[in-house]
Amino acid sequence: MTADSNTTTRHAPATEATAAGLPALPQMDSIIGYKLRRAQLLVFQDFLQSFAKLNLRPAEFSVLAMIARTPGLKQSEIAAALGIKRANFVALMDALEKRGLADRRKGDIDRRSHALHLTPEGTRFVRKMMAVWNTHENRMIDRLGGPAERDLLIGLLDRLLAPDATPDA
Amino acid sequence: MTADSNTTTRHAPATEATAAGLPALPQMDSIIGYKLRRAQLLVFQDFLQSFAKLNLRPAEFSVLAMIARTPGLKQSEIAAALGIKRANFVALMDALEKRGLADRRKGDIDRRSHALHLTPEGTRFVRKMMAVWNTHENRMIDRLGGPAERDLLIGLLDRLLAPDATPDA
DNA sequence: ATCTTATTGTTCTAGGATATAACAATTAGC
DNA sequence: GCTAATTGTTATATCCTAGAACAATAAGAT
């Protein structure tokens, strides 16, 4: 079950040079970046389906979750924490504000910054959002095998991200 | 701030309600999809830098690698194997053909399909490509801690992808 | 204080990746 | 032979990401 049962066809002799003298071609299935991309797309796909009713995308989810957890942060702080360029954050925040879920409040000390907060409706929304997210996340954890495997995966991904982690945002 | 098992699963009150009565907000850092996305972006970033000289993007790499490993496959087969819609595959293949790295040959049995092959120059290119890729992949493996951790990670990602894996393509 | 530099939010723009619909050529089923 | 399905293709729309530039504001140096 967990061996070499790959989808990727199986013509070629595998080990031998396929084209003229090509050494050891890697199987796409064993490439870190490729697997990461496929897995991420799958998880996001599940996320999008789960949140179709609430009409919420991953980026919006992450922003709401951050504001709920730490209200009052500046736009640039949240953007940086999430790895989103502040230029791209604007439209995102505009949408959340237009939906009445969050709002920007002019900073009193630094009047060019905007402190982000949930509206009362936003708070109610986040409650529903978290319920949906829980079933989504649990589905992913189930696929992995359980919480232990989840922790293991997170740990491995953290290693990848550790060194220079945030490429600035 | 190292290990620490997170509480993202079902139960777990974790912290106090942040906003008005919000239960257990998850830390973005413990969310599978979020971590996957960040890690994938980091790996792709490294990939793009590594391949800046060769002017090659991940998707093109994967196509060349597949053609090199299994020449003669149809366009739609390679596209499906890589999770690329055949509509989006056209421009990709156009570019590779324009660069003289691969070509389409009309199938003799089924004349609407195109069998994909590397050109001689494509074969030479793939050789250089694999050299670059090796140092890139080794850098990622080093970050993870070693080949054992790489295998572990791949295994965990395979679990995620296992069930319905290919969302069709 | 003033002059210069940096930060914050913003707009505009451009590239890439992904998704769907439709179409011509070809093949397969009946 | 007629109808339905497949293959490659074009066209299109959306989202995500990235970079440059700008006004308002703040911070630092003189």
Descriptive overview:
Two copies of one chain form a homodimer. Helices cover 54% and strands 6% of the residues of chain A. The first copy, chain A, is mostly helical and 169 residues long. Chain A has a domain at 44-161: Arc Repressor Mutant, subunit A (Orthogonal Bundle), CATH 1.10.10.10. Chain A has a two-stranded antiparallel ribbon. In chain A, strand 1 (102-106) and strand 2 (114-118) form a beta hairpin. In chain A, helix 1 crosses helix 5 and helix 2 packs across helix 5 (120-144). The longest helix of chain A has 25 residues, at 120-144. Chain A is globular and about 65 Å long. Chain A binds a DNA duplex (30 and 30 nucleotides) through helix 4.
